[in-house]
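Hello Y.,

Per our agreement to keep a running log of every chain we model this quarter, I'm adding this entry. I've kept the format consistent with earlier entries: sequence first, then predicted structure.
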Amino acid sequence: MRFTRRSFIAAATSGMVALAGCLGDDEATISLLASSFDPRVVWIGVGETVLFEHESGAHTVTLFHEDNDVIQRSPVTATAFDEEINSGSIDQPFDTEGIHGIFCRPHEQAGMACAVVVGDYDDEEPGLATPQEELPGAMQDTLASINREILEGEPANGGGGTGPY
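Predicted structure for the entry above:
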């Protein structure tokens, strides 16, 4: 097979772009859409950050944590956060290993939730519990779907940026 200069440069550039994507920057991104997070699950390492990017609507990025007066679906030792985001973005660091359940207060009835899997986890994580009956039906459905996605290691909603790191 004969390579021209143009095909060689194209192949080299593609390789560099692919390699740059593998090097990472210790940050994952989750978009906040009208009434959903995309992707709904991301995997990161301990000490890494998730960038929550506002796309549309009025939202919160709220950890399912008893310190936020909600059910516990995150590690008990995690630091609770409950941030409004109506434009721009939020960088949220994750320093506690485990599954961190996150939801949007204004869209709880619609089931707007996601999960950040930090490092290793076990099957007894609060974030993998059967969705609690006191939650709205749509939230129960979303959380059950997220649980399946985590256990299978593949996206349940067709979103990208997922899979064990």
